[in-house]
Design a protein that fits this description.
The protein is built from seven helices and no strands. The protein is elongated and about 90 Å long.
Length: about 150
């Protein structure tokens, strides 16, 4: 059945080919081309599904987030606008979620947040004029967030 369909398509396609071929030549050229295409499709496995096992689940949701954060840090080091628009909102959400879960602090505006985060990290997250510090200083700041 598939060969007949492929042959019909090939014949029809060649019949309207510019140059207005006679039907005899369209069939003469189309049938072998359709046969080669059908045999190639049959034996190449193109029509059969490719079954593959599911990818292994990551240990935690933090692994892709950490890679994403590392990319954002690299971009933000060169462009302060990216820091304010992309990285800082994510760091704010992370800090707020950690403060809420570990200490019951409602948000970064809570006075206890300054004591828990440290003045430098709190200023980085809340001060509109804050700029991304160097890698070593940022690592120390974020280590303080991890220890909460």
């Amino acid at each position: 059945m598939a060969i007949a369909v492929a042959a019909g398509v090939a014949v029809a396609g060649l019949g309207v080919w510019p140059g207005d071929l006679p039907v005899f030549w369209a069939v003469t050229l189309g049938v072998p081309a359709a046969a080669v295409a059908a045999v190639g499709a049959r034996f190449s496995g193109a029509l059969e599904p490719q079954w593959a096992p599911l990818p292994e689940q990551a240990d935690s949701a933090s692994e892709p987030q950490a890679a994403n954060l590392a990319t954002r840090l690299a971009e933000a080091a060169d462009d302060p606008v990216r820091f304010r628009a992309r990285l800082r909102p994510r760091l704010r959400r992370l800090a707020a979620a950690t403060l809420r879960a570990e200490h019951g602090v409602s948000g970064l505006d809570d006075p206890r947040a300054v004591d828990l985060l440290g003045a430098d990290l709190h200023a980085l997250l809340t001060d509109p004029a804050a700029v991304l510090p160097g890698p070593e200083r940022l690592e120390r700041m974020l280590a303080g967030l991890e220890e909460l």
